[in-house]
Write a structure and sequence with these properties.
mainly alpha; 19 helices; two-stranded antiparallel ribbon
């Protein structure tokens, strides 16, 4: 919710700037962004409000209540309905200001049509300017990389050039693409034939394809230009290779080849609500950044989801709408939160001995907690004692005793997480020591420990207790 609010607040600042600049194209674009930003924020605030009422406040009146601190009246919950109304008031003011400026700049009838044509001409000219700038930047980058001989580029330079490639790819796939889509959606036709919609679409498609091919080639070229990772030593060592010729023998050791990873396939989604946020993150990291056309990316998305999801996407042609449908079905925060909490309340541990069981429990609990923290829904864990009770009951018996001995703070749930982290480290040491004890009879057969001998059994037990 706060992320959407920050985005909306940034749009407010851009609106203030647009009022002074008085550019029709910019104002129209901001009006659309302003409306979209408000709808997203308003929807996320409703989810936040319902979650707080369900987990903490219990009633709407409590959610909107106030209290006295140091003689000052403050809200019980900072982001309540009063705060939301302030944001709506600010949204309305910014929108009215933009609309007033737009009404002044746009002249009715013939003058208005001329203004629209001028806007189209200006937008198309901006696209042409951006295409020239990107083309120049790509060519400069290609020239700079090719100035290096194979194997002489340092690792830091390779990283820097890779960042430049990613920055240019983002400019093409996001910034320029959005500008083209906005221009094509504007009513009317430009006054110049070269700025017609078909010419703009063809100009963007042709150039973006050429740039992406060239940037992909530059990415591979960086592997050749990077420093050769081979070390020549005077003495042979593990992994050395002797290279002989008619005159001498050279020893090459520590040689490391550069490894090229095979292309990865798009991530698959199995239909589990708990795995949907991770699937969406992987998709954005691996597929969305590839800059595929929307139609191609939409087809790939349909191929990676289960049958039920494919049926839901049948007849859907827009990528954004497809993600909205999938998010509504599989990305419901309340449903995911409920399933994660059910997992936590029924958590169990597995292992051959107490240390292994403790380690298994810690990993399971941390995984569930991290998922809840990612969705900012971890607050309920602090206030529902059933979660603490479930984890306690899953502890091996001797760790239960250790838990009862610790000094509690105001947050017993945080105490439990800290206890699990500490016990996890101790369990690793216990497993190491126990594994050493278990191999003693194999190493020294003559002095093997006899469990039936009281003296030997006592020594063995002391070693085990020390572990």
């Amino acid at each position: 919710m706060l992320d959407n609010w920050r985005d909306l607040d940034t749009t407010f600042e851009l609106c203030d700037r647009a009022v002074t600049r008085k550019k029709v194209t910019e104002i129209k674009r901001l009006l659309s962004s302003l409306d979209t930003g408000w709808y997203k924020f308003n929807a996320s605030h409703k989810i936040y409000k319902n979650d707080v009422i369900e987990k903490l406040a219990k009633t709407e009146s409590t959610f909107n209540s106030t209290q006295i601190e140091n003689g000052i009246e403050v809200n019980e919950y900072e982001y309540n309905d009063v705060w939301r109304k302030k944001q709506f008031h600010a949204y309305g003011e910014k929108r009215d200001a933009l609309q007033d400026i737009l009404d002044e700049l746009e002249v009715p009838d013939q003058s208005n049509e001329l203004s629209l044509v001028t806007d189209l001409d200006q937008a198309a000219s901006d696209i042409q300017t951006d295409i020239g700038s990107i083309d120049l930047a790509v060519n400069k980058l290609e020239s700079a990389i090719n100035n290096y001989n194979d194997g002489e580029m340092s690792a830091n330079l390779v990283i820097e050039y890779k960042e430049n490639i990613e920055r240019l790819t983002n400019m093409i796939s996001v910034d320029l693409k959005n500008l083209v889509h906005t221009t094509l959606a504007m009513p009317g036709e430009a006054s110049k034939p070269e700025f017609s919609n078909s010419n703009i679409r063809e100009m963007f498609s042709r150039n973006s394809l050429q740039w992406k091919q060239k940037l992909n080639e530059l990415y591979l070229t960086l592997a050749k230009k990077s420093e050769v990772k081979a070390v020549y030593e005077s003495k042979p060592s593990l992994g050395h290779v002797e290279v002989s010729d008619a005159h001498e023998t050279k020893v090459v050791s520590g040689f490391r080849e550069q490894v090229f990873l095979e292309k990865t396939k798009p991530p698959k989604f199995d239909g589990s609500e708990l795995e949907f946020p991770e699937f969406q993150r992987k998709w954005n990291a691996q597929v969305a950044k590839a800059g595929l056309p929307d139609e191609s990316e939409h087809d790939k998305l349909r191929d990676t989801v289960p049958k039920q999801a494919k049926d839901m996407l049948f007849g859907v042609n827009k990528l954004d709408k497809a993600w909205t449908i999938l998010g509504h079905r599989y990305g419901n925060r309340d449903l995911i939160s409920k399933k994660l909490k059910e997992q936590l309340k029924s958590v169990t541990c597995e292992g051959k001995n107490d240390p292994e069981k403790l380690m298994d429990l810690k990993i399971k609990v941390r995984n569930i907690v991290t998922r809840l923290e990612t969705m900012k829904l971890q607050a309920a864990l602090e206030h529902d004692p059933e979660f603490l009770s479930s984890v306690y009951n899953a502890l091996p018996d001797r760790y239960k005793m250790d838990w009862l001995k610790i000094t509690s703070t105001e947050s017993q749930w945080t105490d439990m997480l800290t206890f699990l982290d500490t016990a996890y480290e101790r369990a690793i040491k216990e497993l190491t020591l126990l594994s050493n004890i278990s191999i003693i009879p194999k190493k020294v057969k003559a002095n093997a420990v006899d469990a039936s001998n009281p003296a030997d059994n006592s020594l063995y037990q002391k070693a085990k207790d020390a572990a």
